[in-house]
Design brief:
Layout: H1 6-9, E1 16-21, H2 28-35, E2 40-44, H3 52-65, E3 69-73, H4 78-86, E4 91-94, H5 100-110, H6 134-144, E5 146-147, E6 150-151, H7 154-158, H8 160-165, E7 171-174, H9 176-182, H10 192-208, E8 211-216, H11 219-227, E9 232-237, H12 238-262
Parallel strand pairs: 1-2, 1-9, 2-3, 3-4, 4-5, 6-7, 7-8, 8-9
Helix pairs in contact: 2-3
């Protein structure tokens, strides 16, 4: 299928399915995920241990595969945000956004003047090293690099309406584990308070016509999230998918071999 840009994807409420990369830095992974019909990838710079050298290299792999990348950052600071943009991130997803003021500041880091204060360096990674008119390049970057703040605190939930209403916010991402911990209900995603928080976010996103995203650990959870208003579903992540697939295969192999060993004449005796 023809791959949409991330900017095109956030303009619709259709289902978009991707995955989370937190462990594997290998050239083939981008092509593998594209062949599996992933539509986007989140590259994690918060928990993974990936640094900027890794990020720059990985972004080239994903660009070559035509797979848009949301870069998840631990920091909201200028040096993290602007550098990730310069390396070619399709979207920025900073952690712990709790207010419209914080969101506005991150947007300023991402945008060139007059919309922000991002420093200008051209014919580098973010514009594919190509020459071209300066003003057009700045306008295009301001238009196309997506801001997808991550809400993962009760304060962020309280302020979600103001965050969602902010010009330049393309969607809201929910950091569900951190949010549940800060609500005092760690991992209890079926708790009534957590459900109320999700309804508040979904309502705000629907009112302002923006996307809503979250990681889903399994297919059933992803379907339930989509039905509740989430249109960006991040299906698990590289390390967890490998572990689960390997566990299922190893368990099935051992079970089959035990059954064979226990069968009559399994040793070949008559």
């Amino acid at each position: 299928m023809v791959q949409a840009t991330l900017n095109e994807m956030v303009a619709t409420r259709r289902l978009k399915v991707g995955t989370f990369v937190i462990e594997f830095d290998t050239p083939g992974l981008a092509q593998i995920l594209r062949a599996a019909d992933c539509e986007f990838v989140i590259l994690d710079l918060e928990h993974s241990g990936f640094g900027f050298d890794t990020l720059k290299r990985q972004l080239r792999y994903y660009q070559s595969a035509g797979l848009p990348v949301i870069v998840s950052t631990a920091s909201q600071d200028y040096d993290f945000i602007a550098r990730a943009c310069d390396m070619g991130a399709d979207a920025i997803q900073p952690a712990m956004v709790a207010s419209a003021e914080q969101a506005r500041e991150v947007l300023a880091h991402m945008r060139y003047p007059p919309k922000g204060h991002r420093g200008v360096a051209l014919q580098i990674a973010h514009d594919r090293y190509a020459p071209g008119p300066t003003a057009a390049k700045l306008r295009r970057a301001n238009r196309e690099v997506v801001f997808y703040p991550k809400i993962e605190s009760p304060e962020g939930i309280e302020n979600v309406e103001a965050i969602a209403a902010l010009a330049g916010v393309a969607g809201i991402w929910i950091g569900h584990f951190d949010l549940s911990v800060r609500m005092g209900i760690p991992g209890r995603f079926d708790h009534p308070e957590f459900a109320r928080a999700m309804r508040a976010v979904s309502t705000a996103c629907r009112r302002h016509g923006i996307s809503l995203g979250r990681i889903a650990p399994d297919v059933a959870s992803g379907v339930a999230l989509f039905r509740s208003g989430f249109d960006f579903i991040c299906y698990s992540g590289d390390v967890w998918l490998l572990r689960e697939a390997m566990k299922q295969g190893v368990d099935a192999l051992r079970l089959g071999c035990r059954a064979r060993s226990a069968a009559p004449n399994a040793t070949g005796s008559r």
